[in-house]
Amino acid sequence: MPLQYIGIDPSTGGGGSPTVLVDRENFDFVLQGWKVDESSGIPSRETVIRIPARMVPLIREACNFAERGSTGLQSTGGGSPTVLVDRENFDLILRGWRVDEKTEAEVAAIEVPGHISGIPSHETVIRIPARMVPLIREACNVAERGSAGLQ
């Protein structure tokens, strides 16, 4: 499956960084982000990640890419993809499906100057269906408004 690289968090240094990609076949979001405690009974096929609010422009770019390509497509997978905003620091909290080994390998192989390749142990990769774009845009709006007040 070909992934469209959208961008990487430039503010996290040379270590692993949250990364935004879009699947070119079904236009689902493929996101690498910081792991969140999963002790709340989340199904084993799903996981939760945190994306910093400063990455909202990259998330918006991924929304635009997905909307241009996903007209008429229905994402599959069931489950409960969820988009939340942390009201304390306005990071995005995303719950999505764990990716398969092939997708994880493709994400791990992406090389970005100044950043290590691979997926660090404190990060993971999830898939969120393209049908979630409106909710992701709404979360971006909340994050932008809230984080503007923190600066």
Describe the structure.
The protein has 151 residues and is an alpha+beta fold. It has one domain. It contains 3 helices and 7 strands. Strands 1, 2, 3, 4, 5, 6 and 7 form a 7-stranded antiparallel sheet that branches. α1 packs antiparallel against α3. The termini are far apart. The model has no long low-confidence stretch (mean pLDDT 83).
* Rg for CA atoms: 14 Å
Total number of domains:
1
Any low-confidence stretches, pLDDT <50, length ≥5?
A: none
- Helicity level, as a percent range? 25-40%
Which class of secondary structure composition applies to the elements? alpha+beta
**Judging from the principal axes of the Cα atoms, what is the shape?**
globular
Please count the beta strands (DSSP E, at least 2 residues each).
7
| Largest sheet: number of strands, sense, barrel closure | 7 strands, antiparallel
Return the string of H and E elements.
EEEEHEEHEH
Mean of pLDDT: 83
Strand content: 25-35%
What distance lies between the first and last C-alpha atoms, to the nearest angstrom? 39 Å
Question: Number of helical runs?
Answer: 3
